[in-house]
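hey
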């Protein structure tokens, strides 16, 4: 009897495993999935996940294991999961422009993207979304028209809408640049083109961005100075962050050529805070390379520049690499920088911050700086 019961449980477990969503073995590439999809006349379903993503884990635990999900997905798709921070996944994430997790992408058997959607959802909603997305071949058709050179404005707007909905920022920028080509000096008068610029232009070298940075008056008159200033700052800051990347083996890659081009662009645009972007990039690079001598040198250079102003919160963020385990000579130097700021506040040369943007702080920043100084010595608050 015991043997029969054990056998029944094993059979039930096997049936459950068969019913749930079946993924290809770990390490399966998109290219391998494409070969299998062609052989079995199926589509490809790609789960783009990371090991730290909570919603990714929830989908794997609570949704993909449900029999009705497996019944729907397995006959139609070759299902693969790829960690977007793995050696294979990281460059694929960049190629596919995946920046949020989980992202689910549906491909045809040739590994051409049909559609994508983001985020966790209950099983029934997931099945419905996959069903709707897998029937929509519009995205691949639009991509073909773009690749074949179609630049009709109405088509570009349609394609841009699709790319924006799919969070494909790099491709959306290219289409937006094409849409604004030749209209750099006039697009501000058109509400549709204004929206395209504000939402989709992410390349600081784009003609429309360069013109706007040099001549912001027309766009400022249309939508106000603050949105225009924020757009310019965000594009420059986002590009600056892309200059440094951490590799799978732990090394840090710095794109010196693009950095030099960026510096030349800032000079051409006559951006008042050009030195901010240069020094902030070098501070970030030194931090990632764990070169504290260079790090402190760039921080001091930033603080000594009368055209720049690091607020108290920025100083506190710059203190992040310094812990009780850090070489004491570096800790002391950073503490001296913070103590100088406290002395300036006490002398009335500066005022401690009580809010950041629209957020009111629970205590003024001079208290925060004192806490940071103590933390570098391993002291807890009120210790």
């Amino acid at each position: 009897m015991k043997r029969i019961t054990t056998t029944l449980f094993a059979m039930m477990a096997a049936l459950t495993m068969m019913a749930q969503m079946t993924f290809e073995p770990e390490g399966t590439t998109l290219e391998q999935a494409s070969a299998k999809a062609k052989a079995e006349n199926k589509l490809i379903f790609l789960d783009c996940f990371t090991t730290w993503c909570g919603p990714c884990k929830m989908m794997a635990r609570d949704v993909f294991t449900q029999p009705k999900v497996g019944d729907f997905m397995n006959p139609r798709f070759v299902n693969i999961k790829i960690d977007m921070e793995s050696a294979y996944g990281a460059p694929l994430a960049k190629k596919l422009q995946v920046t949020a997790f989980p992202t689910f992408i549906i491909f045809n058997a040739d590994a051409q993207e049909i559609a994508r959607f983001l985020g966790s959802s209950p099983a029934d909603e997931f099945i419905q979304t996959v069903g709707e997305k897998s029937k929509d071949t519009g995205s691949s058709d639009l991509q073909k028209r773009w690749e074949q050179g179609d630049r009709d404005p109405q088509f570009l707007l349609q394609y841009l809408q699709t790319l924006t909905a799919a969070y494909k920022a790099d491709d959306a920028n290219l289409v937006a640049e094409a849409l604004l080509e030749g209209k750099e000096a006039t697009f501000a008068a058109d509400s549709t083109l204004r929206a395209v610029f504000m939402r989709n232009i992410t390349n600081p070298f784009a003609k429309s961005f360069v013109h706007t940075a040099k001549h912001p008056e027309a766009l400022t008159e249309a939508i106000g100075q603050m949105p225009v200033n924020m757009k310019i700052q965000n594009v420059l800051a986002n590009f600056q962050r892309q200059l440094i990347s951490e590799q799978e083996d732990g090394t840090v890659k710095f794109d010196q050529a693009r950095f030099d081009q960026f510096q030349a662009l800032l000079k051409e645009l006559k951006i008042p805070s050009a030195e901010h972007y240069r020094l902030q990039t070098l501070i970030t690079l030194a931090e990632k390379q764990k070169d504290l001598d260079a790090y402190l040198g760039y921080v001091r250079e930033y603080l000594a520049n009368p055209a720049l102003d690091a607020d108290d919160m920025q100083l506190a963020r710059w203190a992040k690499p310094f812990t009780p385990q850090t070489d004491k000579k570096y800790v002391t130097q950073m503490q001296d920088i913070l103590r100088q700021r406290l002395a300036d506040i006490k002398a009335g040369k500066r005022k401690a911050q009580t809010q950041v943007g629209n957020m009111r702080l629970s205590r003024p920043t001079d208290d925060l700086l004192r806490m940071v100084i103590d933390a570098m010595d391993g002291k807890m608050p009120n210790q």
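The CA atoms of residues 66 and 156 lie 40 Å apart. The two ends are 66 Å apart (CA to CA).
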